[in-house]
């Protein structure tokens, strides 16, 4: 099934109440979930992008830069970017002690335009760290679906909403490349929660992100809901790796 033939006319329905934890998937399209084999993206020759230069966005930028990744840090606020630059300058040397393999720190490039295209057009991974407002996140994910390469992994740093709540404007093919990736207040907390949508998120996506996080000196921990959202099920956690 080609990307142009994917049907997005009956999208999943996100919850309107922030306290709601279920999501209704369109059952008439369950069989249309993509079966095209997933090829992992090229990593070190392409940048990763972070949307939001706040307290977490700037810390995540340091984590990946310290492991040699080129980072595009986007925020429409010049003030946020200026504050982030001050934090990065002061703290990046500490983060360089985390990676398993020592490499020169990657460049962190700031982007402040209203259009996110320059920051994400060649990204292999985009991490959204925008405010915890579901309609905003739905719009962001839809925009990313349209403006990033087709192999780009889209993750959310949200601890309030699963990415399965953010797919209203995202095509079926892309949904298997989405998950939550929740960072703590690094550098003090190095555990990173990978929240996958079991039965939808491509297993290779989890393996790629686990490898990258481990290489950055983080401790990835997977959480997943058994069964599709809306069917309930047991939430389980699995420590994927450990960091000395």
Automatic annotation (TrEMBL):
<dbReference type="GO" id="GO:0006631">
    <property type="term" value="P:fatty acid metabolic process"/>
</dbReference>
<protein>
    <submittedName>
        <fullName>NAD(P)-binding protein</fullName>
    </submittedName>
</protein>
<dbReference type="GO" id="GO:0016491">
    <property type="term" value="F:oxidoreductase activity"/>
</dbReference>
<feature type="compositionally biased region" description="Low complexity">
    <location>
        <begin position="18"/>
        <end position="28"/>
    </location>
</feature>
<dbReference type="InterPro" id="IPR036291">
    <property type="entry name" value="NAD(P)-bd_dom_sf"/>
</dbReference>
<dbReference type="InterPro" id="IPR029752">
    <property type="entry name" value="D-isomer_DH_CS1"/>
</dbReference>
<dbReference type="GO" id="GO:0070403">
    <property type="term" value="F:NAD+ binding"/>
</dbReference>
<feature type="region of interest" description="Disordered">
    <location>
        <begin position="1"/>
        <end position="28"/>
    </location>
</feature>
<dbReference type="Pfam" id="PF02737">
    <property type="entry name" value="3HCDH_N"/>
</dbReference>
<dbReference type="InterPro" id="IPR006176">
    <property type="entry name" value="3-OHacyl-CoA_DH_NAD-bd"/>
</dbReference>
<feature type="domain" description="3-hydroxyacyl-CoA dehydrogenase NAD binding">
    <location>
        <begin position="48"/>
        <end position="223"/>
    </location>
</feature>
<feature type="compositionally biased region" description="Low complexity">
    <location>
        <begin position="1"/>
        <end position="11"/>
    </location>
</feature>
